[in-house]
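[job 4471] stage=fold_predict status=RUNNING
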Amino acid sequence: MTAKSAAAAARATVYGYPRQGRNRELKKAVEGYWKGRVTADALRSTGAELRRSNWRQLADAGIHEVPTGDFSYYDHVLDTTVMVGAIPPRHRSAVDADALDGYFAMARGTQDVAPLEMTKWFDSNYHYLVPELGPDTVFTADSTQQVTEFEEALALSLTARPVLVGPVTYLLLAKPAPGVAADFEPLTLLDRLLPVYAEVLADLRAAGAEWVQLDEPALVQDRTPAELNAAERAYRDLGALTDRPKLLVASYFDQLGDALPVLAKAPVEGLALDFTESAAANLDALAAVGGLPGKRLVAGVVNGRNIWINDLRKSLSTLGTLLGLADRVDVAASSSLLHVPLDAAAERDIEPQILRWLAFARQKTAEVAVLAKGISQGTDSITAELAANRADLASRATSPLTRDPAVRARSEAVTDSDARRSRSYPARAAAQRAHLGLPLLPTTTIGSFPQTTELRTARADLRAGRIDVQGYEARIKNQIREVISFQEKTGIDVLVHGEPERNDMVQYFAEQLTGYLATQHGWVQSYGTRYVRPPVLAGDISRPEPMTVRWTTYAQSLTGRPVKGMLTGPVTMLAWSFVRDDQPLAETARQVALALRDEVNDLETAGTSVIQVDEPALRETLPLRAGDRAAYLAWATEAFRLTTAGVRPDTQIHTHMCYAEFGDIVQAIDDLDADVISLEAARSHMQVARELAAHGYPREAGPGVYDIHSPRVPSSDEAADLLRTGLKAIPAERLWVNPDCGLKTRGWPETRASLENLVAAARTVRGELTAS
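[job 4471] inference complete, writing structure tokens
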């Protein structure tokens, strides 16, 4: 096919769409089901209506081929586990008794059965449920969800493409099941899994599917020859099937690298590539393999993960280059739009001109459709759109919001010594022990306590004018008093104020820093029914006034025990925001670090002896390719040290990380030079403690003994057993006792019981150590 005919055939598509609905209807329905207020039929009805609404929105925007199978009640990787029948034995009876309840038991656990482990989806803030596999795993196909949703789209007279997690990525994301040897490699199960995918593909073909998309984002990471051979074998075998739809193998988040020639020669009908992340590398690699003659190329030229408007002319240029490299070129967002909010038009508090810089999911689908029209019908057909886009890009580039000379001058003046503590860790540790007087195995929590209905109501009442600031603050003080009193009675050693005034650990700070924009409706799924509103980091960052000092010092006035000051670190402030794309991330991180440094210093001046600067996104933001990691970790760890290095030796600096593969960044954790780190460890059975020990980590650590993403209450014996496991890796004088993460999403009854058990476990193990 000529470039001209390839352009004429261009179609618009996306890989996935936000699931929650305009008013987070899915969250409300699922949580209502958990509480017994919503029936299973009503929940399924809500899901079906949300899917129909999404498909209609996409079709109305000019999307020619809508995705199906991307919708999920909790997580699409968990849905894949159900599709291939890889149900853990401990959940089998629950799934057999009631499929929906069993599904949620795998996601959240029950009082008697632990859930699947949860971790980050590549370098995003989306969490997936980790498959548990072993040599005895038996796969069985269940294509019910995939076929049903595809048929729903067909009933609306839409062209639809089912989207599945690919078999290689599914196995590479999996871990050995409990009790299975740690060196077991799930990828060895590929030959057992492929017939199940073959059966699902046949079912979808029988339902009328012309194309099926198999997502293989794991192939954009560095892969061994054995893993690349597995990918070659998988798509050789699936491509050889006769009873199947056409196959579109999709990658995103980075370049395919060595996997591109493998997939280019595979007997599949199409590839989808990301031309926003490492666009030049994918272009060069595609040209190097001679393009994709006879195949379909879906070009992801609209960023699916950030919210800035597309440069339409630049994307058209990229698409023009691609037209000669494939039989057919279609236009798409670079990844599922799950990672961005639904609709920028819903925002009423952002100045209209600035709002035109932003593209949420609905705006991105419009951009995709415009680009498809432009290459199919020529740029003359989109003259008005190009002119408006050019004006909006120029408006942003010249806006005074984006540049503050004072901020830039301060950043340029930073020296290496600004990011170094004045004393070495051993000297600091001795000073901190003398100053704080903490017992062996000190207990603490991560920061937040339950965000109750009363707190959410108070914030809503303040916004609506039903109460004044004085009335609101009275409610916050009352909550802090309750949290401090509970911790004292329970026997926790280092207290927190509970963060009742904070709506979100990033948004709260963003609303008080210059250069940030806050949204009212910009919800994005983090995991399950947990949605966040990432702020928009649009310009240079500074801190006009203290942000946390008042509430921390108020809490400290209520107790003689140390109360931690709680801040969100610079890398996490970037990772959990929609960050500006007009300057290097390292520069933006330094600006945020300097603003937070002022807050740290003010907390210390106000008498705060323990300050926690959370960096849960440090691993999440790690580049997918090893060659890019050293530069990232250099500026990321420098930003943390720049935030924290200005305090006295006897001020104890904590950090916190959760739900990620920490073994990949142990050296970086060491390089942070924090005095204490708390980490998620309950679901992963203290794996991180072993990783710290193997590295020779020299500081104090608190691997979590209470999984806060499950409603179950761990017994004191369970927590004590985890502590004993931790002690095999970390000496008692350096081991802390804490939950995995903050308690914001939990209810008070389970929080009370769990923390009481945590403290009891610490006392039990303390006694054992003393006795020995």
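[job 4471] summary: The chain has a mean pLDDT of 95.
[job 4471] exit 0
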